[in-house]
Amino acid sequence: MPTGISDVKYKEGAFEDIKNNFGNSHQQRIKKKFKDIKTNCKLGSRDPRLSSEYKKVDEVKGYTIYRKWVGKSLARLFFAVKGNEMILVSVLPKDDNTYKFTNYHNRL
After folding, report:
1. DSSP 47-101
2. Which terminus of the chain is more solvent-facing, meaning fewer CB atoms within 10 Å of its CB: N or C?
3. What residue numbers bound the domain in which 25 lies?
């Protein structure tokens, strides 16, 4: 059983993704969702490795990459998890290319 998440961070590129791909109201919604995720992970109630709200999509450089939805059609958040560390590496609008995304490889 994995230890809980105690360190939730983000890569600058993730917030650049938000700024470049979403309007102001959606930016605020996504940032609020990230804060909620950060709080829930630190409280132990939403570890991505144990929650069905996250989908495992890849493994890179010792990190496991998980995807989380923000709204059914708004955005996809990509997190890298290793040990007790969780990093938001990218935020993309939902479209046909979202699931082909590999830029998080370069951000880790």
Report:
1. -TTT-TTEEEEEEETTEEEEEEEETTTTEEEEEEEETTEEEEEEEEESSTTGGG-
2. N
3. 7-107
pTM for this one? 0.86
Contact 107, 13 (CB under 8 A): yes
CATH of the domain at 12: 3.30.2310.20
Q: How many domains does the chain have?
A: 1
Distance CA 22, CA 16 (A): 10
